[in-house]
Amino acid sequence: MIYKKRHYLSILTYCLIGILSCNQKQTKKNDSIDRKAVVTRHNVVNESIDSLSSLTVGNGEFAFTVDVTGLQTFPLLYEKGVALGTQSEWAWDSFKNEKNFRFEETLKSYDFNNEGRDAKYSVQWKEPQRNKEATDWFRENAHRLQLGNIGFELYKKNGQRAEAKDLTHIHQELNLWTGEIHSSFQVEGEPVEVYTAGHQEQDQLAVKVQSPLIKTGRLAIYIRYPYPTAEFLDEGTFWERPELHQTKIEVSDTHFANISHQLQGTRYETSLAFTEGKLNKGKEDHYFVFQPGRNTDLLEFSAAFSQKKMEGKLSLYDETLASSTKAWADFWNRGAAIDFAGSKDPRAKELERRVVLSQYLTKVQCAGHYPPQETGLTFNSWFGKPHTEMHWWHAVHFALWGRVDLMEKSLGYYANTVEKARAIAKRQGYEGARWQKMSDNEGNESPSSVAAFLIWQQPHFIYLAELAYRDKEDPKVIDKYKDLVFETADFMASFPTYDKVKDRYNLGKGVIPAQEVFKAAETFNPTYEVAYWDWALRIAQQWRKRAGMEPNEKWDEVIQKLAALPVQGGVYLATESATDSYTNPKWRTDHPAVLGALGMVPESPKLDKNVMKSTLDTVWKTWSWADTWGWDFPMTAMNAARLGLPEKALDALFMDIQTNTYLRNGHNYQDGRLRIYLPGNGGVLAAVAMMAGGWDGSEGELPGFPKDGSWQVKAEGFKKMP
């Protein structure tokens, strides 16, 4: 009888637990984030002309940036702001190598550790002149192209071309949920309404325009082709040297046209589709004008860029918008989301804005098949070439936000360029593959007296591959990436120098750390790189185990004997070679990379968190924060979060420093040279994902946010950071 009572009580207990469990699930469901509300409350609105507030449509592989007219009507007005770029990841060009420069002419031999090594690095020569010119040529070529300017020709009643000052009643809004830009303005009291969207399956933009100016012949659309500058920056407004390239209308009828553009190193096509009208050659070279028919006040216009002539019919606006709307809804509805509504901390709204806009910008600018350049697909920096040490900042957040496929798209770059990475390692006397720091899509290395000696890009592939595996722990991911993981680790194990006296392996000499102020010939054992090296080699060993293989003995030897993280006075030094890391003003500038040893990099067996806490305090007080970069603040936040200092993590994200500025359109502003800097946006997303979703070893929910009630946070879908 007692047993039966207990049995019935047990059944009742299980039922109550089940009911409570169901209620909890229902509460969680009802309490889920209204994603559309979170996203659209940060739609970007412009009501005046501001060269730093241009807006972009695109798909991760192609981007088109517009001014307040919804097209690129005033490129010169915006060229020193967020320039009105048109770029695709495939669009590269090279000038003719008229002097027959050979890449070998950029190489210089070094033997940093007196080992008798003839290690050849591609550097920037100052003399002799031939080597200097070779250096310059290989830095400038290949260069990423600006594909063309597409804007309005607007005319006043007196026949004069309307200028920016003639636009009134400006209102422009980017609908983040659909990717559509709605722009409206007036010219001499006549309204113009423009809708702009980017196709998500091809390199195409489309506009729908309604205005009485169409009927009166006072509105047309121009297409203009710039020439590449082959300079550090290319804002797409270099219209000189018209004799060096050719443009030609290949086809033109009342609804379709095609323009070919031939440069010295490439040719591409622009396909146009439109409601009734005619494309004509303009009065200037490389300038074309679409003049719409006058029987309506409504026109649609599409332009697609491609390497070869497009086959089939080009879609107009409604189909392009449908593509954009579907893809953006899919993007926002999958993966992670976060909502700070109800927070008492006044910074919460701004953090949410940065998070939402950074998701939009990185999806538009950085979700292609190659590591993106630091200025994305807007304007060139470093000749349009990506920097692989920045790939962590461009890509990690995609995986942490539950969109690992967007990260994996760019991992194919490593498989496609591994032969060239092997060649770099071989010519320097190392094993495996040494990943290029600054290159084009083909993995061709660019000469650089800094890039040639950087090593912190090397473990990135292991980190990214590990994120891909952790997403679902799918053995197929091991099969897909293991060979590249192992070749990466082979270089990492062969690179350190064995110190017989101290029976240890040193990183360097011959290293420029992430904090680039140090000289390669003098630097060894930078704290961040040593910690990252240690973690990545241990993960590579785990990959061997997952693949059913025995541990690599050489890797183990390096792991066991790798130099300790350099400590002095209870704080970690930037490098073991810089014992004056915090007293010499020169060493307190650039990236405070020492903090990356716990933040970007998971906690290492080598690391003492008490020492790192003292290091954070020292860096916080002594650093020249005005001489930092946009991703330094998220890196500092991640360090503070792992140390159990969530308030300090938020303070880091909101340091009042110019390079921590986020413009109205969401871009991270650095200075007059780098008006946009996407590693900063990726850094914000990575830091917030970590603070919300946690990291290996973190406890409780939302471990990176204060628990004093000042922050009300709803979060869902985040993946733990390693």
From TrEMBL:
InterPro entries: 6-hairpin_glycosidase_sf, 6hp_glycosidase-like_sf. Signal peptide: none annotated. Gene3D superfamilies: 1.50.10.10. It comes from the Bacteria. This is Glycosyl hydrolase family 65. It comes from Olivibacter jilunii.
